[in-house]
Every structure is written in structure tokens, then in C-alpha cells.
Specification:
This is Peptidase A1 domain-containing protein. By secondary structure, the chain is mainly beta. The protein has a domain of 191 residues: Cathepsin D, subunit A, domain 1 (Beta Barrel). It contains six helices and 30 strands. It has an 18-stranded mixed sheet that branches. The chain has a five-stranded antiparallel sheet with strand order 1-23-24-20-19, with no helix packed on it. A five-stranded mixed sheet has the order 22-21-16-17-26. It starts with 8 loop residues before the first strand and ends with a strand.
């Protein structure tokens, strides 16, 4: 293939940088549909927010032509930087819990480490009456939701500002309110003060947000899927962010930030406590094509597999930790004991010996393709393979699983990262694949982490009330449990699929179908689909109407760094 101009790319089964649109699932829960930050949708939103594409010097919001192509080596490097940032945050919070010093500490609680690459998920939310739309960053390491509001010092990039005076449902939050917990400021102002001040500080170059708390409605949809659900106005307390500092002035979270932690001030906690969702839990469904779904209030099915959530060693009890007792590759098993963080916000899976060596060497001895090295950007993956000319599927995918505490078996249905290439600017096509497991020492972390790639083909339930992790093989498109049996689909994508054939397929057996991946040449205006088969359309470009053209799928993943697998992180609000 020396005559080809190959643009090697790892298929982002785990895609970071998302924008979410709040809609409904057929089950009646409230959830988010996600789009990665470099998708055409988000790129156009960025251009529109900048008044036609003129950026602000120093802003972290990249113009479309500046953003790395999805699946490019630069994009892949961003995934690893994101994982590294999460591990750094995890170590910092653990040190604070152990009484050790951190980079920066505050008197009223732990701080959240922030850098540009941590805000990899975004949600389009609607607040107030009449409603206004905001493109907010989702932070799983903090709790408070805040919006730029009555700005004294905010990023100058054309983002929407929240104005209490323009919303008929806006209310002030006085110091006597149960969610006003900043004793220093309230003691000075007195409990009768009409406005409760807030201040959130993040461990990154003096980055923070401050202002006053307000209450208004967050617009959601509940019940009856297909976009025909009942409108819900959820009363939410959030910050009217008058002063932003540090990274926020350079464009990070310019449209606001939604904390997704366990504290009572967070939006997930508010939804559960108000009874708007049936259970204090949420589910995440991951498909082979990278499309997924997060649904609040979903406790899963009665026959799903489950294991207790635990806390051990340096791992914070605020993370979703499980205990693993054995690993199996085909018929070969090894007893091993370790605790792992289950984290969809991490792109790949990180293991230490002996688990790493057992899984990788047994996988390596069972695949038929020849080993390959793909050069700079891919050296973190020790086990990569090349396909023969014209080959689009693995010849054999070994069965892999983890046995968890209590005996429940966690199936690993798709641990593969496809390697794609484009010939002379044509459609991307598979040329190989890598095993998406990285040794923990590569990123200088001691924590084993089950990343989003190990959750592919499953619906994973995080039941915060029962303190259990549940899972089952699931068809995210049909919102139905997979039938057991059948042969695994080992296809890595096809030229036709990569060219933009994105008609939702029907899976066979117990694996999700082979579907197109969201490469740049697919990025055209037109409808796309996500689990639940509810169509959305690309935002209309100025002067182009609603747009038309071939359809494409938009990638999902890293999820809820939505969100939410760090939802239990120690709060970062300094009250």
C-alpha cells in the first residue's frame, strides 16, 4: 500500500467531546443524546456562537478547520490526554481524602482539577421561561450547575447569557434556603439576605466561577418515546455566574457548566429527590457503532447481572468501583483479585499485571492476523494486527469476560479498536485493529480502569440507591435485551459503510451490527439516528434552510466523562 496516501485512524468506539440533547427514552426515563465535540453539529454551533466563525484569541474553542479530524492521530492523542487528565484528577482527590496535600486546597472541601481536555462532553440545555438554550460543559467531578449571567467578567465569545429578569419563572435563592451552604458569606450577609452567594474553585490556574444562586426551570421531556413525550419543567437551583476566572476566560465552558456529582445541589440529585425519575439510578447503553444513550431513573431489569459497588485502597468511594475475581479468554481462566474503576469517561481499559499479561497474551495467541506496528500515536497499544488486502473482518474474536464479586460474569463483547485508512482522500476503510487495553504504568496510574470500550454491546446500570452495578447485553437501537447465542460479528467496517451508508441496521445473534463509523467524509447535512430511532436534524446553516443530504451517525462514548461514571466524585464546590 506504499502508493497510497494512508491516513491511519483509530475508530473512536469511545468518542469524547460530546454535545447532548435532552429527550426521552421509550421506558419513560429522562436522558441525554450525545454528539462529540468535533462533529459537524458542534462545529456549526461553535461557529454560530462566534458570530460566523471569528474566534477569540486564546480561546480553547477551536474553529471547525482547527479541530482534529475524528479518528486522526491527533484525535487519538486527545483521547489519551483525556484519560491521563482523569487519572491525575483521581490521584489528587485520593490524596485529599488521605489528608495529603494537593495542588491546591480549599477550606470547605476538595477541589476539582480542570484542564481544557477534561471538558469533553457538552449538553444543549434549555432554561427559563421563555426558554433559552445553552451549550454547557458536563463535569463529573463537581456538583453545581452554573450559567454565565449578569456578567462582570466572562468569556467574550458570543455565548448566550442567562438573565433572571427576562425569565418569568426565575427566583432568587436566599441565604436561608436549604441549598445555600456557604457559611462564611451568609454569616456576613445575614440569613435574611435576598441572594445566596456561591463560589466554585477548580485546581487549574486560578480557574473558578462565582455569583449568586437562583432557581428556575430546566426543560426536559418524559414518557412516551419518539419525541412525543410529555414536557417537564424541573425546578433547579443553579449559579448565576457573574465572574469567571482562569480557563473559563479562555473559552473553557464558555456557555456554562453542569456538575453531575452526588451532592444534593447537582442536577441528577435534584431529579431523583423531586420524584421526576423513578429511581436514583441511571443506565448507559453502548453500541458497536459508537452511538449510545444515557437514561436517568433506569434501574435495569430484574434478571440483569449485578455486582456490589465497593471502595478499596486509593480508590475513592465516590467512584464506581467493582471487585474482579477471575479473567477468562475462551476456555482458559485465571483467578485474580483486583479492584477496578468502571468509567465510561475513560476511553480505553487499563490493567496491571498479572491481569494485563494474561488477557493480552491469551488474546494474541488466539487471533489469526499478523502483528503490526502503526507508528507514532499508536505505541501505547502493545497488540495490534494488520488485515490482508480486501479483508474487512477479524477471522476470529476470542471470547473474553471478567468474573466479578458474587460470581456475575461481565462479558467483553468488543475490546477492539479498528484502525482505518483513507486512500488518496477516499472513504476510510479498515486496514487493521488493536486490542484496546493499555498497561496502567503507561499513564503512571495504579488504578485498574474498565473503560468505555469494555462496555460496548451492553447496557450498564449504575444503581446509586442499591449500590450495585448491573449489566446485560443490549440492543441500544431496539431498546431491548439481546438474545443469547449466535456467532459474534467480527467485521471492522466496510468501504460502503465508511462512505456514509448509515441506515440503522438490525443486529443478529448477541452482538451489535457492523455499522459505519463517524469519519469526516460522512459529515453532511441530513438526519441521523440514535437509540430509540428518534430522528434529529443538523442545525441549519445560515442561508441554507434546514439542509438535506446523506445521513450519518454521530459517535457516543466516553459518557457521560457525561457523564457520569464519575458522578460520584467528591464535590468541588466551595461554599
Amino acid at each position: 500500500m506504499a502508493h497510497c496516501n494512508l491516513l491511519v485512524a483509530i475508530a473512536a468506539v469511545v468518542v469524547l467531546l460530546f454535545v447532548a440533547v435532552v429527550t426521552t427514552e421509550a421506558s419513560g426515563g429522562i436522558g441525554f443524546n450525545l454528539h462529540h465535540r468535533f462533529s459537524p453539529v458542534v462545529r456549526q454551533w461553535m461557529v454560530d456562537a462566534r458570530g460566523g466563525g471569528h474566534g477569540v484569541p486564546g480561546s480553547s474553542w477551536l474553529l471547525p478547520e482547527e479541530a482534529p479530524a475524528v479518528g486522526s492521530p491527533e484525535y487519538y492523542s486527545a483521547l489519551l490526554r483525556h484519560d491521563r487528565a482523569l487519572f491525575t484528577r483521581r490521584r489528587g482527590l485520593a490524596s485529599a481524602a488521605d489528608g495529603q496535600s494537593t495542588t491546591l486546597t480549599f477550606a470547605d472541601g476538595n477541589a476539582t482539577r480542570l484542564d481544557t481536555y477534561e471538558y469533553l462532553h457538552y449538553a444543549e440545555v434549555e432554561v427559563g421561561t421563555p426558554s433559552s438554550k445553552f451549550l454547557v460543559a458536563l463535569d463529573t467531578g463537581s456538583d453545581l450547575f452554573w450559567l454565565p449571567c449578569e456578567c462582570k467578567l466572562c468569556a467574550k465569545n458570543g455565548s448566550t447569557m442567562y438573565s433572571p429578569s427576562l425569565s418569568s419563572t426565575s427566583k432568587t435563592v436566599p441565604c436561608g434556603h436549604p441549598l445555600c451552604e456557604r457559611p462564611d458569606a451568609c454569616a456576613t450577609a445575614g440569613k435574611s439576605s435576598s441572594s445566596c452567594p456561591y463560589e466554585v474553585k477548580y485546581v487549574s490556574a486560578n480557574t473558578g466561577s462565582s455569583g449568586v444562586l437562583v432557581e428556575d426551570v430546566l426543560h426536559l421531556v418524559d414518557g412516551g418515546g419518539g419525541g412525543g413525550g410529555k414536557a417537564v419543567q424541573a425546578p433547579i437551583v443553579f449559579g448565576c455566574g457573574q465572574v469567571q476566572t482562569g480557563a473559563f476566560l479562555r473559552g473553557a465552558a464558555a456557555g456554562g457548566l453542569m456538575g453531575l456529582g452526588l451532592d444534593k445541589v447537582s442536577v441528577p440529585s435534584a431529579l431523583a429527590s423531586s420524584g421526576l425519575v423513578a429511581s436514583d439510578s441511571f443506565s448507559m447503553c453502548f453500541s458497536r457503532d459508537g452511538v449510545g444513550r444515557i437514561n436517568f431513573g433506569d434501574a435495569g431489569s430484574p434478571d440483569q447481572a449485578e455486582t456490589p459497588l465497593i471502595a478499596a485502597g486509593s480508590l475513592q468511594p465516590s467512584y464506581y468501583n467493582i471487585s474482579v475475581g477471575a479473567i477468562t479468554v475462551d476456555s482458559k481462566a485465571m483467578a485474580v483479585e483486583f479492584t477496578a474503576v468502571v468509567d465510561s469517561g475513560t476511553s480505553f481499559t487499563y490493567l496491571d499485571d498479572p491481569a494485563y499479561t494474561f488477557l493480552t497474551t491469551n488474546f494474541n495467541s488466539r487471533v489469526s492476523e499478523a502483528s503490526e506496528t502503526y507508528g507514532s500515536g499508536y505505541e501505547k497499544f502493545e497488540f495490534c494486527y494488520r488485515l490482508s488486502p480486501g479483508q474487512t473482518s477479524m477471522k476470529r474474536l476470542p471470547a473474553m469476560s471478567l468474573t466479578t464479586k458474587g460470581g456475575a460474569v461481565f462479558p467483553i463483547t468488543w475490546p477492539i479498536i479498528p484502525v482505518l485508512a483513507s486512500t488518496n482522500g477516499g472513504p476510510y476503510h479498515p486496514i487493521g485493529y488493536c486490542l484496546g487495553i493499555i498497561k496502567t504504568s503507561i499513564l503512571s496510574t495504579e488504578d485498574a480502569t474498565i473503560g468505555q470500550n469494555f462496555m460496548t454491546g451492553l447496557k450498564v446500570v449504575f444503581d446509586r440507591r442499591k449500590s450495585v452495578l448491573g449489566w446485560e447485553k443490549f440492543d441500544c437501537y431496539k431498546d431491548a435485551k439481546m438474545q443469547e447465542g449466535g456467532s459474534p460479528d467480527t467485521s471492522l467496517g466496510s468501504p460502503a459503510a465508511a462512505a456514509g451508508d448509515s441506515t440503522p441496521g438490525s443486529p443478529s445473534g448477541d452482538y451489535a451490527p457492523s455499522v459505519p463509523l463517524p469519519w469526516e467524509n460522512n459529515a453532511t447535512n441530513g438526519p441521523y439516528y440514535y437509540p430509540g430511532r428518534v430522528p434529529l436534524t443538523w442545525p441549519a446553516r445560515s442561508g441554507s434552510g434546514s439542509g438535506s443530504g446523506s445521513s450519518s451517525r454521530v459517535s457516543f462514548g466516553g459518557l457521560l466523562s457525561l457523564i457520569l461514571l464519575h458522578v460520584l466524585v467528591v464535590t468541588s464546590v466551595t461554599w
